[in-house]
Amino acid sequence: MTIISFRLNENLFLKDPQNSELGQNIIRSSISLIDEIGFEHFTFKKLADKIESTEASVYRYFENKHRLLVYLIDWYWTWMDYKMDFAMQNLLTPEDRLRAGLKVIIEEKKPDPNFAFVDEQALQRIVMSEFDKTYLTKQVDLDNKEGLFIPYKTVCNKLACEIKKVNPAYQHPHTLISTIMLSANHQVFYAKHLPSLTDINGEKQVTYQKLYEFCEAIIFNSIK
Amino acid sequence: MTIISFRLNENLFLKDPQNSELGQNIIRSSISLIDEIGFEHFTFKKLADKIESTEASVYRYFENKHRLLVYLIDWYWTWMDYKMDFAMQNLLTPEDRLRAGLKVIIEEKKPDPNFAFVDEQALQRIVMSEFDKTYLTKQVDLDNKEGLFIPYKTVCNKLACEIKKVNPAYQHPHTLISTIMLSANHQVFYAKHLPSLTDINGEKQVTYQKLYEFCEAIIFNSIK
DNA sequence: CAATTACAATAGTAATACTATCATAAACGG
DNA sequence: CCGTTTATGATAGTATTACTATTGTAATTG
């Protein structure tokens, strides 16, 4: 029953969806709808029908569906950042901290009782299939200027800093981490849909375990 | 003077665009238009206006814009495959072959006189920003069944085989290669638009050189 | 010369991505 | 308690997108 909520970038929304029931409904239902039909087929009309509201009402919260997607994704990375802080707490060596942070990223997410209106597992699936679409656009520079990618950059930077501490001479901590983050997001998708692109397979739990080991090996083989 | 052309998967098109002037025009102009405005804003109407034809005529070649994008991307990976075969020719050790293949992937593309109606540099930019969108969809399994991702998988597999030859005991050749391929596509984008995610910067030539060295190091540190 | 093909021209439809206006009920402030 | 803001619903309307269908005609082929 912790009463925390994330304060996200105000450019993301017209009205904060966390402060009203309709807003929370929009978040909850957009997660399940995007998870179900994919972002391409997702429309505010379909969402409005699902929550028995109107398109116009949804538009009062989000300028367009792209901003809504970025909102969800930013929420996810802010959540990861928060979980990483917990996981890395009290660990003394940068190696341990790095491993703990990495583990947070590469594990199957469980529902977090702190956030009642977010289905974290569905959101993780959305991040895997849709995250890249938030920045692979022509407006990336404008969106970036508005700070829309800060949560992801924060997570990456936190891990890159630990790498730097493990080996201050290593020249590519950011490149290495963003490479690993990309892979962490894609390999689970490959395992499911394009298995010839990966050697990872088996049950979900096993998938994440193997993926974690793969990523850990890459990192430590590179920086030692 | 073209004496070669790639025979692409027939599921990609309704009528082969390589066999007519309008078809070639569609390819040429869709590359420049997608490069210019991005795939999201690209429509058959805009393309038709650009080539002074009609929407209906474009639809005779491609079922929809997604298939057209996959066509372009498949052409690119088929081209990469072809170039890799050349580059790896006559090299005897798997290490050398791996390096040569990787170099083909990670270098700034030059216009190839073999293919008059393709702007290879624009196409490379399209691959960097749009490739992931071809498979991060709800129809991925259907598209995969139709063989739409074969060219990419072929390229990945070719490199993974060399890894296996370098070190037959290495357990993750496919995972490693698809990780590197992802990174190769994204890091150049990061360098330009999200520089805090990478340590790579500087002039284009330098960017590719640094990126190549980074990827080579990851690979050989992992498999040795 | 007949028949196919390639393509332009035109029309039309359902869905998408919005914008605008108005009514009303709840909440809130003095 | 009354007036005002706020939140939402209801409704309408627009330009664009993503197609499908039909027809006419010039060029190509058999």
From TrEMBL, chains A, B:
Keywords: DNA-binding. InterPro entries: Homeodomain-like_sf (IPR009057), HTH_TetR (IPR001647). Residues 20-80 form the HTH tetR-type domain. The keyword DNA-binding applies. One of its GO terms (molecular function) is DNA binding. It holds the Pfam family TetR_N. The keyword Lyase does not apply. Residues 43-62 bind DNA. This is TetR/AcrR family transcriptional regulator. It comes from Chryseotalea sanaruensis.
